[in-house]
UniProtKB/TrEMBL annotation:
Belongs to the XseA family. Bidirectionally degrades single-stranded DNA into large acid-insoluble oligonucleotides, which are then degraded further into small acid-soluble oligonucleotides. It catalyses: Exonucleolytic cleavage in either 5'- to 3'- or 3'- to 5'-direction to yield nucleoside 5'-phosphates. The keyword Cytoplasm applies. This is Exodeoxyribonuclease 7 large subunit. GO terms for molecular function: exodeoxyribonuclease VII activity; nucleic acid binding. It is found in: Cytoplasm. InterPro entries: Exonuc_VII_L (IPR003753), Exonuc_VII_lsu_C (IPR020579), OB-fold_nuc-bd_dom (IPR025824). Residues 13-106 form the OB-fold nucleic acid binding domain. One of its GO terms (biological process) is DNA catabolic process. GO terms for cellular component: cytoplasm; exodeoxyribonuclease VII complex. Heterooligomer composed of large and small subunits. Residues 129-305 form the Exonuclease VII large subunit C-terminal domain.
Length: 406
């Protein structure tokens, strides 16, 4: 029943506290799953105190437990253990606090944990967070590497020592975070955001040594997986040993089997690179030497040819051929000119022999009428006609005295 109160008639604190306690104490026992933190056993008491934290949200409840119930769990539970407890809510009116009175504790089954991880894996895979096209390539030689690990951990030493042994000039920016327990996922996400915001950091390594499935649960946290997928800087997962495979391995841009393997994957070995450069120089020198020798032999073969070995001989032969052709042409032309000259002389003699002048030179003459017509018949003239007589060296006039036919 609600209390009737007013500013003039308020209820006492004890009344409200006792009312809350009376209502809560009527609740029955429930089974609750969570993660144990801040577990402590009071000296000289049989009561165990601690906090039961939600695995997916930042919510927790205090709990109390009989020491015999707590120590009866096999294997023993510690801070960070995932458990299922049977508890009854209790409100302590004197202190005004709520706590769960635990009367049974059980480990969360490994099979159940694996099933939950598998369901989360399928969900994130369906969203494409594990797709290969989302993977970013690592730089060949990063100048600054971000490292997220536990303080003074073996994983930190493995990464730093192996990386500097391979490339002494590499620089690290280390962000420490819990790598086990209820706060691990949140601290790793905070460190990841810090390193991702630093533009000088070219690759981020999240490293942790091996452990049980429960120890590695923070690295399958959904919030951490999404934070890694959204990072602009390439992320390398170096969690546990070779068989360990939290979901972080799937979303990371590169999965290293161990922290030592991560150091080998993110920086090249200076000795190997120097050996590679030396081998390439030797190969280049051999290639150039071989090419020069081949070209030298080719030039020597070309120079040994007669056209280059004794070019004057060939020119002299060609010169002799040209001289012979010129001489042959001259003889041919002279012969043809001589024949042409003889032919002209012969034709000239023939023309002269047929010329009327030659006939006149033999004592003949040509008689012409006054109009220049040659007299061929007696009938063309009459007595008393004046004719022109043409002889070899001139002409003169003649008069016809008589005409007579033969």
């Amino acid at each position: 029943m609600a209390l009737e109160t007013s500013p003039d008639a308020p209820a006492a604190v004890r009344t409200i506290a006792n009312g809350i306690a009376s209502w809560i104490n009527q609740l029955g026992a429930v089974w609750v799953e969570g993660q144990l933190t801040d577990v402590s056993i009071g000296r000289g008491t049989t009561t165990v105190f601690g906090t039961l934290r939600d695995t997916d949200a930042d919510i927790s409840l205090r709990f109390t437990c009989n020491r015999r119930v707590f120590e009866a769990v096999d294997p023993p539970v510690t801070d960070g253990s995932r458990v299922v407890v049977n508890a009854k809510p209790n409100f302590f009116a004197r202190r005004g606090t709520l706590a769960l009175a635990v009367n049974e504790i059980r480990h969360v089954g490994i099979g159940e944990l694996l099933a939950r991880i598998e369901r989360l894996k399928q969900l994130l895979s369906a969203e494409g967070l594990f797709a290969s096209y989302r993977k970013k390539a690592l730089p060949f030689l990063p100048h600054t590497i971000g490292l997220i690990c536990g303080r003074d951990s073996a994983a930190e030493r493995d990464v730093l020592e192996n990386a500097k042994r391979r490339w002494p000039a590499v620089a690290f920016r280390v962000e420490y975070a819990s790598v086990q327990g209820p706060a691990a996922a949140g601290e790793v996400m905070t460190a990841l955001r810090k390193l991702d915001a630093d533009e000088s950091v070219e690759v981020i390594v999240i490293a942790r040594g091996g452990g049980s499935l429960e120890d590695l649960l923070p690295f399958s946290d959904e919030g951490l997986i999404r934070a890694v997928s959204q990072a602009r800087t390439p992320v390398v997962s170096a969690i546990g040993h070779e068989p360990d495979s939290p979901l972080l391995d799937l979303v990371a841009d590169l999965r290293a089997s161990t922290p030592t393997d991560a150091a080998k994957r993110i920086v090249p070995d200076v000795r190997e690179e120097l050996d590679g450069v030396r081998l390439l120089r030797e190969r280049g020198l051999r290639a150039i030497t071989s090419w020069l020798e081949r070209e030298t032999h080719a030039l020597a073969a070309i120079r040994s040819r007669p056209s280059l070995a004794a070019p004057v001989t060939d020119l002299q032969r060609r010169s002799d051929e040209v001289a012979a052709l010129v001489e042959r042409s001259r003889r041919t032309l002279t012969h043809r000119l001589d024949r042409a000259s003889d032919d002209i002389a012969h034709r000239l003699a023939s023309v002269r022999a047929l010329s009327p002048k030659a006939t006149l030179e033999r004592g003949y003459s040509v008689l012409q009428l006054a109009d220049g017509t040659a007299v061929r018949e007696v009938a063309q003239v009459a007595a008393g006609d004046l004719l022109q007589a043409r002889v070899s060296d001139g002409r003169f006039a003649v008069e016809v005295k008589t005409e007579e036919n033969t």
